[in-house]
């Protein structure tokens, strides 16, 4: 289970941040005033760590304290370093600090990226471990309860906000290649320290997760996708496998500790029109390319799904076509026979045309109708952004529009009281001082108790 | 990576516990970065410093004029504070390694950034 959780986080947190770091713009990431205030209130000479610092926007808030930035994402850390910050690459679950060395820690928009309750607790306990008694920890997580949006589920995949990246792809015009899809999405829902704009990048990037992505990265078109998928499919981290894992992650409505080992998984139906796929800019390629096993392939159909339970809106349900990735399904589900049944509890990525979806537009029509997009972007992207007019303009999506599923980020959005409950029940070494809501985030300040480990 | 940072770092290789501190520093590239002197800031750091680890690291880097420990009245001793300021904040290891004293595991420092990630294998229970 923990391995699956790590895999999900790798794919939908780490790889996304790593791939998109070059396109990061600090303009996009807000520095929360209350966080700044917390930092400024620390005693001069304090040793402070920002765990999940991203590009380091909080690292220079207070010149009277020593602030270390830590992030799992190398490229983001490099950016912070280039701004003159003291930073390192490390894992929240295994902080490389001696016990009781730090006076304060901030964790802004990090814990919500852990996909199981146990991992979230571990992350908090690790931070508590390295705090001195009396030291304070501030945690911000994205709230499920939003003013302008409605999350159907707590575990969600959120598409990338591409608005800021479109200029990077504006000039891609190789002969025979389609336009990069410049598909503006709504601004990011939350502004975690690592928040980055989304890019209309081919999902194929995911299959190169072991490589770092340089600024020379080029947008990949469907054609390229096709080509690479066939190569990718044979690798452990091949596109199809990666895709499969992502598919898998779509089909679970709850965090992995609740649903992973259940038998209820999505049914994936065979792809009907692979040619359509190849021509479309949907980045997901039919698994016929891949070296997956050769059972019947089924497209994923959400038609029979609980339509009111999903965060994402499906455009053309009949035409949903998903390559099957039985290998990866197996990987996650244990006894998978190459088929996934639908999770009857509703999956956080089931297609649904919910009335709460305030996203623009009708279906995106790809070239061949059978290759239309499977999912449109979801409404609940914005927790903190106060610009309701920033919605994805689906009408901008042309046939070559890249699938917004590229760079989907996983979040476990927190219910009111959940974070508090987590600390109260599982992290005895911390005493909660304050808790509240700040711009669509649940936030807590807790103190390390004396005489604790 | 500054030596003040090094002073906080510990190996988290499984099973190593407190024996993972301090990390043994080796540097192939070091830079001196001038940092504005803030005596109050430095004075407040002094009680938090793990001296043995600091001296070991400073020795590896062949630094001179490193105080061996806090001296009486250090809060007002400008010379002492400036020396500590230099050692803790101005010496920047750009390239090198940090080694777990217990397991021998090496963590790289590149472009001033230590990478403390363990591999999947190393983090498995």
Automatic annotation (TrEMBL), chain A:
Gene Ontology CC terms, in alphabetical order: cytoplasm; nucleus
CDD domains for the chain: AdoMet_MTases (cd02440)
Region (Disordered) location: 283-306
Methyltransferase type domain mapped to chain residues: 50-139
Superkingdom of origin organism: Eukaryota
GO biological process: one example: tRNA methylation
A GO term, aspect molecular function: tRNA (5-carboxymethyluridine(34)-5-O)-methyltransferase activity
InterPro entries membership: AlkB_tRNA_MeTrf/Diox (IPR051422), Methyltransf_11 (IPR013216), SAM-dependent_MTases_sf (IPR029063)
Keywords: Acetylation, Methyltransferase, Phosphoprotein, S-adenosyl-L-methionine, Transferase, tRNA processing
Function according to Swiss-Prot or TrEMBL: May modify wobble uridines in specific arginine and glutamic acid tRNAs. Acts as a tumor suppressor by promoting the expression of LIN9.
Family assignment from sequence similarity: Belongs to the methyltransferase superfamily.
Protein name in the entry: Probable tRNA methyltransferase 9B
Automatic annotation (TrEMBL), chain B:
Name under which the protein is recorded: Multifunctional methyltransferase subunit TRM112-like protein
GO biological process terms on file: rRNA (guanine-N7)-methylation; tRNA methylation
PANTHER family: MULTIFUNCTIONAL METHYLTRANSFERASE SUBUNIT TRM112-LIKE PROTEIN (PTHR12773:SF0), UPF0315 PROTEIN-RELATED (PTHR12773)
UniProt xrefs under Pfam families: Trm112p
Keywords: Cytoplasm, Methyltransferase, Nucleus, Transferase
One GO cellular component term: perinuclear region of cytoplasm
A GO MF term: protein heterodimerization activity
Family from the record: Belongs to the TRM112 family.
Subcellular location: Cytoplasm, Perinuclear region; Nucleus, Nucleoplasm
CDD domains: Trm112-like
Principal location listed in the UniProt entry: cytoplasm
């Amino acid at each position: 289970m923990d391995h699956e959780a790590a895999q999900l986080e790798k794919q939908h947190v780490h790889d996304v941040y790593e791939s998109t770091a070059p396109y990061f713009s600090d303009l996009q990431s807000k520095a929360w005033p209350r966080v700044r205030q917390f930092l400024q209130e620390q005693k001069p000479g304090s040793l402070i760590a920002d765990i999940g610092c991203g590009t380091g926007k909080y690292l220079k808030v207070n010149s009277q304290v020593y602030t270390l930035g830590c992030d799992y994402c190398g490229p983001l850390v490099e950016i912070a370093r280039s701004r003159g910050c003291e930073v390192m690459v490390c894992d929240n679950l295994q902080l490389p600090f001696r016990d009781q060395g730090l006076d304060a820690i901030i964790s802004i928009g990090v814990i919500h990226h852990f996909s199981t309750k146990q991992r979230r607790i571990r992350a908090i306990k690790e931070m508590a471990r390295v705090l001195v008694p009396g030291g304070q920890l501030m945690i911000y997580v994205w709230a499920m309860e939003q003013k302008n949006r409605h999350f159907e589920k707590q575990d969600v995949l959120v598409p990338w906000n591409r608005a800021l990246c479109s200029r990077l792809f504006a000039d891609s015009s190789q002969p025979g290649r389609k336009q990069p899809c410049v598909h503006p999405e709504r601004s990011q829902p939350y502004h975690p320290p690592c928040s980055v704009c989304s890019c209309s990048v081919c999902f194929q990037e995911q299959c190169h997760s072991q490589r770092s992505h340089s600024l020379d990265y080029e947008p990949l078109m469907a054609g390229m996708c096709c080509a690479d998928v066939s190569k990718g499919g044979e690798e452990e981290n091949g596109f199809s496998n990666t895709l499969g894992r992502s598919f898998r992650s779509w089909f679970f409505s709850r965090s992995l500790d609740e649903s992973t080992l259940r038998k209820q998984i999505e049914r994936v139906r065979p792809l009907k029109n692979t040619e359509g796929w190849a021509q479309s800019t949907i980045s997901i390629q039919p698994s016929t390319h891949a070296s997956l096993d050769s059972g019947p392939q089924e497209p994923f159909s959400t038609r029979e799904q609980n339509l009111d339970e999903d965060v994402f809106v499906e455009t053309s349900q009949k035409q949903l076509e998903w390559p099957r990735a039985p290998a990866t399904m197996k990987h996650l589900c244990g006894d998978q026979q190459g088929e996934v049944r639908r999770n009857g509890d509703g999956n956080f990525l089931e297609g649904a045309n919910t009335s709460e979806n305030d996203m623009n537009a009708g279906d995106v029509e790809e070239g061949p109708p059978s290759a239309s997009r499977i999912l449109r972007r979801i409404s609940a992207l914005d927790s903190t952004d106060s610009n309701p007019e920033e919605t994805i303009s689906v009408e901008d999506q042309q046939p070559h529009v890249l699938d917004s599923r590229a760079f989907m980020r996983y979040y476990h959005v927190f219910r009111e009281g959940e974070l508090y409950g987590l600390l109260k029940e599982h992290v005895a070494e911390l005493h909660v001082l304050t808790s509240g809501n700040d711009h669509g985030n649940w936030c807590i300040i807790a103190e390390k108790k004396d005489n604790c480990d | 990576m500054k030596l003040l940072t090094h002073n906080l770092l510990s190996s988290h290789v499984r099973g190593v516990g407190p024996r993972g501190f301090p990390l043994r520093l080796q540097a192939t590239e070091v830079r001196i970065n001038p940092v504005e002197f803030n005596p109050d800031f430095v004075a407040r750091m002094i009680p938090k410093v793990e001296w043995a680890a600091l001296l070991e690291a400073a020795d590896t880097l062949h630094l001179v004029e490193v105080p061996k420990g806090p001296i009486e009245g250090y809060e007002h001793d400008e010379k002492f504070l400036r020396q500590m300021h230099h050692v803790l904040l101005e010496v920047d290891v750009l390239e090198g390694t940090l080694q777990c004293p217990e397991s021998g595991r090496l963590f790289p420092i590149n472009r001033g950034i230590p990478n403390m990630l363990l591999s999947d294998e190393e983090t498995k229970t």
